Amino acid sequence: KQWYQRRVRELENGAIEVTYEFWSTTGQKYQIKPTSETLLFSPNLQTVSVSGDSCPVSVPDIAGKAGTFVAGTISPAVSTVLVTLTSPDQPDLKLTQVTDENGHC
Question: Is 41's pLDDT higher than 70?
Answer without folding.
Answer: yes
